[in-house]
Protein: Cytochrome-c peroxidase
Amino acid sequence: MYKRTVLTIAFAASSLLASGLATEAKKAGLEPIPTDKKELMKLIDNPKNPITDEKVELGKKLYFDPRLSKSGFISCNSCHNLSEGGDDGIPAAIGHKWTANPHHLNSPTVYNSVFFNSQFWDGRDPHLEAQAQGPIQAAPEMSATPEHVVATVTSMPEYVEEFKKAYGKDTKITFEKVADTIATFERTLVTPSAFDDYLNGNEKAMTKAQKDGLKTFMDKGCATCHTGIALGGAMNVFNITGTYKFQDVGDFKGDKNGMVKVPTLRNITQTAPYFHNGQIWELKDAIKEMGRIQLGADINDAEAASIEEFLKALDGRKADVVLPQLPASTSKTPKPDIN
Amino acid sequence: MYKRTVLTIAFAASSLLASGLATEAKKAGLEPIPTDKKELMKLIDNPKNPITDEKVELGKKLYFDPRLSKSGFISCNSCHNLSEGGDDGIPAAIGHKWTANPHHLNSPTVYNSVFFNSQFWDGRDPHLEAQAQGPIQAAPEMSATPEHVVATVTSMPEYVEEFKKAYGKDTKITFEKVADTIATFERTLVTPSAFDDYLNGNEKAMTKAQKDGLKTFMDKGCATCHTGIALGGAMNVFNITGTYKFQDVGDFKGDKNGMVKVPTLRNITQTAPYFHNGQIWELKDAIKEMGRIQLGADINDAEAASIEEFLKALDGRKADVVLPQLPASTSKTPKPDIN
Structure:
């Protein structure tokens, strides 16, 4: 009986300690992906473009359809590859005619991008609906015109039928609606991880090394910028702490202050190379470099290794994506143009 | 009672008639994908590279992994896209550095390629295991060396572990084994269709128009070359009936007789543009052109439309492919080289 009481107390104490760390993390601005579906839906839904099953299914097809691009060869998934952590694993995105991104910009992951406050590296829009319109039209990416996209989608009766199901009476297929539909699919690409389980109350979800890493992460000040549910995704904090303004990226000047968005740390072990220009391959190097240029802090090898352990707790569980079967082209479908 | 007898007789007669067509089709060399799993396995398995669940799962990952290519951007699925009828929908394949296939060769579908007697347009090898080695190394395709492929796969512990599971004691990762594993996955990409159901005894599986189209298809002589389970996939028949030797394709001369392989007709509605050089977009035009150049026969519009109806019965049912989650690169993984 005595033994049991001790054990109970010991457990409670450990629980309190651990809860202490979780509480501290939340105070520092780190937030979990909620387990409650209604609560999650509130966070990921867009009242102006509500999530429905029909739009998600249609959006998935459009996301995987290379015929939206001028060449017929590049889809959203080419650079935001759902098999590869949601990005492409190369320093600067490759697009139409094998053009490397002229700003040397690295493709950001699409996973959990719904939690970003800012889309694009220069944070020029807060919504995925606006983001989805960008790469489709950008000359060095998918290089398509809105007219090409609308003509392509409209040429296939199966797509037309699915737009009817998705949008009811308002079925006119527009470029904006195509982007909205893709964004709807992207809004569902949420990957809860051990870190979320931990913040949501499961003390055992993270290892001791990961908890220690979380402490180091907060002690060093990383959570100042890598905050919120996405552990990143906003521009604002740069104004306060940034000492390195990333202006040396060709003709890309970031926002008006010469800054780029704080990327998410979720699934970071799967999205090398790092930084907006994809110039750092090792996570440990990225951690140390961020300490130096953003925090003016020396992060030693042991601390970097500890933080890296924590970051592994951000590897998310990805819902199964069944590869869509795309409708067949018709005689009205615009022909691919690889030039 | 009388009525019922009449109905029974009528049904039997109709059944006999329909069976007559099915029998005729089989006599003409057309074969169904068998419904019996053991029988199917005999047809798709390779005793030298036996199909196992472990190899199929690993092969699927490798099939979708762009890191096997020099650039890190092109996977098998880029040109043999399982969402797009198993090919890429563009006239000549695009590869490394946006190089269009120098022989102007069109990417053939991977679906049902296990049933081909010959792989590659020049039919130089009968096995998918050999085929899988080709595009990975071809300079205008994935442009990788065997050493790059082995180094890439070996650099990721998850792949190494899966090779252990797939090959038991014989776990040394070689380029040949990577190709064998991809081929194992490809061997499972079989798509039974209404035509198979019909040949396997379901009289109602094909519409009347499709059955009429099948008759026209056989009457015109199409089944002479488009024969066997794949309705194509062999070289040999060209020697007998070919009058157009497809030599006018740059420096690609086909086999020693200047010929190219007969492509499969399965899923043909989804794999435009047509012919080895992807120069014809409309199925009806392809049918008429084939009549002219291969059979010396005039196929009129009504006949072409009828044959097209039959070809729709070859649209196959594709098993769900859950997008694989690829292992993360490590510091040992060769870096992508887009040049």
Observations:
- Chain A has 13 helices and two strands.
- Chain A touches chain B through 40 residues (CB under 8 Å).
